[in-house]
Amino acid sequence: MEQLANINSEATMYITDVGFERWARAYSPRKRYNLTSSNITEAMNNAIKVCRELPITGVIDCIRGVLQRWFYDCRTSVGKLKSTLTTKADVSICVKDEKARYLTVYPITYYSFLVKDGDLDGTVDLTSKTCTCREFDMDRLPYEHALACIRVRRFSYIDYCSPYYSSSFLAATYSGEIHPVGHPPEWLVPEYIASIVVLPPVGRRLPRRPKKNRIPSFGEGVSQSRCTTCPRNGHNSHSCTYSRSSRPLTSTSGVGEGSGSHNV
């Protein structure tokens, strides 16, 4: 907030007046995800790029095959887990537990503590699984303040993790099975579905070749093609417009020096 105020005081006043609960996750009265991402869309788009030009039925069957493979692979990997929590949750706990070793804990009651970390500090209540810094409340996973208190009482940190971080919940996520749909003559299609006539979309196709590459997001780096004839970016050898005289020589230094030849 201080950095924003130094850049634009009007923007700081606006987001303050609108209410922290409308945009800050820590102040939200409801449980919200800790990120907004389109990663699954990007992953699926990249997985089916080889079949995007097929008819719609082929694309749907390709998506089904990708999901079938993903579910099987994830279900197999989850079956190999030996810990109560998922791998990501275990790693997160280990990293935060190292930091919790250096915190100072002052007990208030048997289940409530004041934790000093030299910066934000926090009051932890293990009964309600809350902390005044709100990180324990939002993530539902013990972090430095809570882990320091759990260490003092010699409790098990697993009891203070949300069940959504458990390997059993992860296994339940991929418990479903995706089977092939079979050949069209074998399908049992209801009569009211079979009687529907699907027409092509109404509209005129725009001129020029349709775009196949997605539009990159803001701040996302775009790789440029590199010409193999002249080592410049932004075009290839077929569209190279540089004259031969202006193109860099491809021969390395020292070639022909023994014979006394020179490049003109």
From TrEMBL:
Sequence ranges of Gly residues compositional bias: 255-264
One annotated GO molecular function: zinc ion binding
Polar residues compositional bias, start-end: 222-249
Region entry Disordered, spans: 208-264
InterPro entries recorded: Znf_PMZ (IPR006564)
Zinc finger PMZ-type domain mapped to chain residues: 129-156
Protein name as catalogued: Zinc finger PMZ-type domain-containing protein
